[in-house]
Known about the structure:
The chain has about 150 residues and is α+β, with helices and mostly antiparallel strands. It contains four helices and five strands. Coenzyme A binds near residues 30 and 92.
Amino acid sequence: xxxxxxxxxxxxxxxxxxxxxxxxxxxxxxxxxxxxxxxxxxxxxxxxxxxxxxxxxxxxxxxxxxxxxxxxxxxxxxxxxxxxxxxxxxxxxxxxxxxxxxxxxxxxxxxxxxxxxxxxxxxxxxxxxxxxxxxxxxxxxxxxxxxxxxx
Length: 151
Ligand SMILES: CC(C)(COP(=O)(O)OP(=O)(O)OC[C@H]1O[C@@H](n2cnc3c(N)ncnc32)[C@H](O)[C@@H]1OP(=O)(O)O)[C@@H](O)C(=O)NCCC(=O)NCCS
């Protein structure tokens, strides 16, 4: 795999709740849907950041948050969530640098399987994860149970 072209200039760092407004702006700019009253609210994100099952990492370039990812684990498997790179900064290796950083952190915790849920229309994301060595399981359907539609 080629070296991340721009990762030398995009510093990867842990995010804190002080980054919340920039994070939401990035999600909006990257066209990633978010639930302002559910699990993406400021209170919910602060709670996730305080726990020990979530890693919020950001990629910063020239003082601006240009990429972010949430890594989670349940003690058994790890998950890549909410990966977003600003449209003006794509195809420079920032997404790859973020995922590699989450993988390294999860692997250091003993997590050996890392997954990502990708909507079937998201060709860019599928191509990205395939390039990073993730294998698609087309025989698995995602079932979920929600306490409310806004969860
Ligand atoms: C998916 C996403 C995070 C990729 O971020 P990125 O910083 O552009 O990715 P990288 O530059 O690290 O790409 C690494 C490799 O993945 C592949 N890849 C990335 N984007 C691709 C695309 N749109 N089409 C085909 N391949 C792609 C390429 O092989 C690329 O290497 P190359 O540029 O040398 O060809 C970005 O497109 C994004 O934010 N999309 C919108 C939000 C989203 O869908 N998130 C994922 C939710 S599951």
